[in-house]
Amino acid sequence: MEGKTTMTLVNxxxxxxxxxxxxxxLSSCFPIEEDSVSTVTEGSTSTSSISCDTVCGGLVGYYPxxxxxxxxxxxxxxxxxxxxxxxxxxxxxxxxxxxxxxxxDSFISLKGAIDNSSSDYTxxxxxxxxxxxxxxxxxxxSNGGSRAGLITNQGKGLQLMYCPNxxxxxxxxxxxxxxxxxxxxxxxxxxxxCVDEYYQALDFNQFxxxxxxxxxxxxxxxxxxxxxxxxxxxxxxxVGNLSVGYWIKNGETDKPFNGVIDEIRIxxxxxxxxxxxxxxxxxxx
Length: 285
Fold this sequence. Notes:
This protein folds into 2 domains: 1-33; 39-284, Jelly Rolls (Sandwich), CATH 2.60.120.200. Helix content is 16%, strand content 38%. It is built from 3 helices and 18 strands. The protein has helices at 2-29, 185-189, 273-284; strands at residues 39-40, 59-63, 79-83, 85-88, 98-102, 107-110, 121-129, 146-153, 156-168, 172-183, 197-199, 207-215, 218-223, 226-230, 242-244, 247-249, 252-254, 258-267. Strands 1, 2, 4, 5, 7, 12, 13, 14 and 18 form a 9-stranded antiparallel sheet that branches. Strands 3-6-15-8-9-10-11 form a 7-stranded antiparallel sheet, with no helix packed on it. Strands 16-17 form a two-stranded antiparallel sheet. The N and C termini lie far apart (78 Å). The model is unreliable at 2-7 and 16-47 (pLDDT under 50).
């Protein structure tokens, strides 16, 4: 009886080993493919080994958006949630290397990388505008227009504005004009002469490298290789979690962005225009 039981057990083990062997052969002949996910609804992770490749000093948040919303600066300021954004190709055609925002309810929330609103800082974003949708009659001096939040929190931060007909000083009218705009209600409300915008035509369906830079009491805007500077403007950093693709204030969301964001960099210092050009050349070529 004992010998029969032993033989039964041996035969059973042989069958199991044979079954495992067959599975191995089948899996090698018919590999299992992972599902292709194009829409991110929650924060995701990645095992890719990405690191800063240029202008790394003072970099406290680096988000290349290569299939995830992790911070690759080494500071752990990872994205918190990505809602209804679609992974798409970047400006160079690399697949799953940028996120598209639908202009309705897409957004990404990033962990705040700077906790001092008076700090010097730089925000860099590589972006393509798909379209603007009319939002209100007061966006462009009663001529109608649209705004889109890029990197904001509590009403502060970097935005875009589109104006089909923009009147400046009640005399000059610009048609189909775009602005890179940094909004800081706390500063501008106490400074009636506050000028916080950079007039520059931006075309649809074209990538631009944009930056807002603050050093001491001077604020600069960079668009590709163009430079704009304003003296005595001290725009504070939007401390707290950052909203990408939306404008958020007091829990209310508004001004959704319709377009593609390739990457974002946050620095705890003011980078120079030469450094900005280094980033530009790395991204563009």
